Protein 1
Amino acid sequence: MAFWSSTSVFTSKVPRKILFMFTLSLSVTYLFYSLMSCYNSLQFPLQENYAYQGRLVTEETTFVTLREKLYSASQGFNEFTEAERTTAVSTVKDHAEAEQRTVEWIRTQASPTKSAAAYHTTALEREHQEFSTTDSELRVNCTMDYGVKKLPQAIIIGVKKGGTRALLEALRVHPDVRAVGNEPHFFDRNYEKGLDWYR
Ligand SMILES: Nc1ncnc2c1ncn2[C@@H]1O[C@H](COP(=O)(O)OS(=O)(=O)O)[C@@H](OP(=O)(O)O)[C@H]1O
């Protein structure tokens, strides 16, 4: 203690000035970086943190913004060679055949009467009323910016609070993926409405 107080280095004015300058430069640097991050978040408000900010904006707005961004990024890949076109046509045929197989599978594996008898408990009815997607909601979400309605090629199945929504949102970012806005709950709540409703 006696050493610190008696040492002239710590009582003279020169180190105090250096300390002051050091503190000032740190403060200015901190201020600069704060302003920079603030500017960036204003410039790119939604794209980078879509999954986490989704609750603050309407789903349509974010979806359209992301889709536009992704499509504009892939515009350079729009010119196809003849071979690529042929592959694309055969892929479309494969998809049509896959859809047909899906229809057949649904018809054979799960009859409406079996489904209705097995799954319609009172609790489920109540849950159905609370969470089920209505026809009009689904139609709005399905046909917002594209027209042809098809059966899905992939289905996300998961327990409640299992993170299915996060998976859907992550997949939806891809420009080749089209997904419904709300969970359709076809197999457990809306099966009786039939495949035309499901498309
Ligand atoms: N990667 C990862 N890690 C940990 N937790 C995650 C993850 N992704 C989603 N979540 C959380 O999962 C909750 C939502 O799950 P679901 O989308 O299946 O919910 S729902 O049942 O369809 O409403 C929801 O939890 P709550 O915020 O408590 O509701 C999400 O925050």
Protein 2
Amino acid sequence: MANALQFCATVQAASPVFSKRMHCQSSWHRPSPPLNYNYKFVATSLVLSKRSRRSLKVSCEAANVDLLETNKIDKEAEKKITCVMKFGGSSVASAERMREVAELILSFPNERPVIVLSAMGKTTNNLLLAGEKAVCCGVTNVDSIEELGFIKELHKRTVKELEVDESVIAKHLEELEQLLKGIAMMKELTPRTKDYLVSFGECMSTRIFAAYMNKIGAKARQYDAFEIGFITTDDFTNADILEATYPAVAKSLLGDWISDPAIPIVTGFLGKGWRSCAITTLGRGGSDLTATTIGKALGLSEIQVWKDVDGVLTCDPNIYPHAEPVPYLTFDEAAELAYFGAQVLHPQSMRPAREGDIPVRVKNSYNPNAPGTLITRARDMSKAVLTSIVLKRNVTMLDIVSTRMLGQFGFLAKVFSTFEDLGISLWSRELIQQELDHVVEDLEKIAVVNLLQRRSIISLIGNVQRSSLILEKAFHVLRTLGVNVQMISQGASKVNISLIVNDDEAEQCVKSLHKAFFETDISELEWECVSGNGSAST
Ligand SMILES: Nc1ncnc2c1ncn2[C@@H]1O[C@H](COP(=O)(O)OP(=O)(O)O)[C@@H](O)[C@H]1O
Ligand SMILES: N[C@@H](CC(=O)OP(=O)(O)O)C(=O)O
């Protein structure tokens, strides 16, 4: 058997029943989910010799099934893709960083990963700024937009330093300039055009990186997510992944992997609108969601997201530099943390991981030896009190009071229908003053309304089984600071308590809460609360 040939066979089955039978009769498995009864089989062991191929042909003819092709496949195909590794903008910000990332990927010889990349460094921000400037600068001035200059310079320099052919991005740089001229001519930047514009970032970073991997002898293949089945809603700038994405992505990536294995290098953040067929984006930081979607689609054993911090931290290090890595989190905790504003993870990214029950590891590409954070379905909560503190600034609070609402049904329905009628979702974007005025005007017909602006939400993510302890300690800290909490709520997922305070008090609150919860021994913490001995450090 040692010199037996291996083949990949694609058959057009008349019905899924037949394919199941064939599946049982042979020792084959089906790597990709069914799509239009077009199945791809691969021998699981070296059994598909020339003789087996002939017998496959005979059985297909007997069952009236078309045998479309039998390709000889590489032995590598036997080894399945094992994980997905996502590298964010800071991890691929320069040629040097790209070299380090390539080295990092190759330092795991037992992994056969799919790689997801974001745009280099601050490219997405620069593309958006260039687009905004193009709206009002006039066609002839487009080539002097500063941000366009930065983008060109960064990508050309990277290509040169990595010694790959500039042709991998030349067409994209040219098209980008044309697009900016188009925006200048039209004098408008629609959400649809914005998404097309920012897509250049990921399209170029992945092309450069794939070319570099090939140059150093690691066979790689570049993919644009919008060409391999990332199907989304048509909500430009904040699109949602649709269910059809999973089988389509699996089919594309596994199909290629089986017939010609090469490390897939996929653009993060991008998709294709199901109605418009135009390029969409998944919201800022959306490459995390690309990675978890691939993880679920391929049923991988791990999803790794590589960042510039040692994992998910106890709070935003930009607010408090003494924040520490959190070693373990549940999907619920991570989702809540992201939803309430921690930039480290995309708010929707935990959904596919949770659905596929695939562990997510958050690691630091600048410090690969740090253990990072492991996010799983469940974890030992026996010692957990507070896991992380998240701050969301510049929140507007609507205080709606009505004595008529007591004992009345339909009151809340009227409140929500006001938002629906005005097409406002309270969470998805910032409202402009005019919209807020409209809401207040409408709600004033049924209640007394106070619009409270410049507030912050401090979310305490942790073990809500110990909510009394958390609240006692938190309120003690806030009272010592002289801060009044204006609203308190417990999230539906039961891992989050949110407090609303004034914007200008919020940072100090987070620092003091961090000191009290994470820089104090837990047993001390319980004792302090029971005996009333504690004092908040400021
Ligand atoms: N709780 C937190 N834990 C870790 N990082 C956080 C947290 N809150 C905010 N951040 C910020 O998130 C950044 C990482 O997220 P992001 O910039 O999206 O990474 P990448 O672009 O590498 O995917 C960190 O550099 C840090 O400044
Ligand atoms: N480049 C996109 C998508 C993304 O996920 O980026 P990052 O991984 O660097 O947060 C953005 O800046 O939003």
Protein 3
Amino acid sequence: MADDSPEAPARALERAGKLKKQQQQEDVAVDVAALEEEDDRDDPQRVWARVQSNLEELTHLAQKRREGATRSRASIIEELAADLSSYYEFLRELVDLFLTIFSPHECVEFLDASVKPRPVVARCNTLKARRKDVAAALVKRGCTVEPLAAWSKVGLKINRSDVPVGATPEYLAGWYMLQSAASQCPVLALDPKPGERILELCAAPGGKSSYCAQLMKNQGVLIANDLKRDRHKATTANLHRLGVKIAAVVCQDGRAFPGVMGGFDRVLLDAPCTGLGVCARDPSIQGSRTVEDVKKIAHLQKELLLAAIDSCDAKKAGVVVYSTCSVSVEENEAVVQYALDKRSVKIVPSEALDFARPGFLRCGSRRFHPSMANARRFYPHTHNMDGFFVCKLRVLGKKDKKRKSRD
Ligand SMILES: C[S@@+](CC[C@H](N)C(=O)[O-])C[C@H]1O[C@@H](n2cnc3c(N)ncnc32)[C@H](O)[C@@H]1O
């Protein structure tokens, strides 16, 4: 029966008000639940647990399918990539890129090692001191040191130090340079000899150039070139401190270098790159580098590599070493393959670097020359070194080879 008493409108209003309030409370309750759910999903512990369970599921996918599981490999990888991106704070597109290089399990190992610092390494400068003297001086200053590795005669790993090792009197006197283990490898591949003409095309701040001068025993000619004038002060200061007497510091765009000087016995191209192998040193890389950056820089790297080859003395079968501190295939194997297609060069082994992983012969739909196995890849999770790529080329003849097929 309809309520037509005088109080009816007031009661109806009150009822409506109560209903509205109840509805609002329910809405808030729903939102809080949704937020809690979302927070829980992003909770690092839960994300990590999901990563582990997805890796487990991928390992036993066939068996799980037989037992009735219905998730596809693609959907597991999709969730894994999203979780890895949130857990390690890498852009999602970078995680996708790493998943084209590594298996899912290895990708997790790589990311985990990538965000942890690498050991501090002193490269002893044999132009001024012996390794045992450097070691003794550092120990006296409260450092704990050990030889870097069997492949290095000059590296010292500094495990603990009570003093800033970049400011000791021995450092200032040029007895050693702080240089990561991986950074020393391109120079070992180049193998410069006393009396030779050596070019480093992208040399600032001079870490690798000074190592070249050391192996050349300060005999020969060393050109340390870099595009960026503001970086030259650091190069000059380092070369001076380390007692290098054979270097000229030059400021040219490396792409135009063959028009400036040529006829070098060996050329090192330690190319500008995205730095995807050295994220621990610069954490901003993981949240800012994009796949578009990789493409752009690969274009520059190809131009620089052709210029490095053209700066060599083709008659003397010159040597070019190409290196980057990136792990992307686009900046490494693809750049070298471009040079193989455009110039008369072949990839040769870098014997000193046998311990590292071989370059890729394929990645996704890309195929590379079989000799790419002579290139070397270094990773934080396998070698406790920066992510690096090193490839040694021998120049076979004059430029502009028009290849029809890969031989
Ligand atoms: C990876 S760093 C070189 C590090 C150096 N080899 C060392 O060991 O100390 C790359 C260098 O390339 C230089 N660079 C960038 N574009 C260049 C270009 N077009 N020509 C020459 N140098 C360039 C940058 O200024 C940067 O110093």
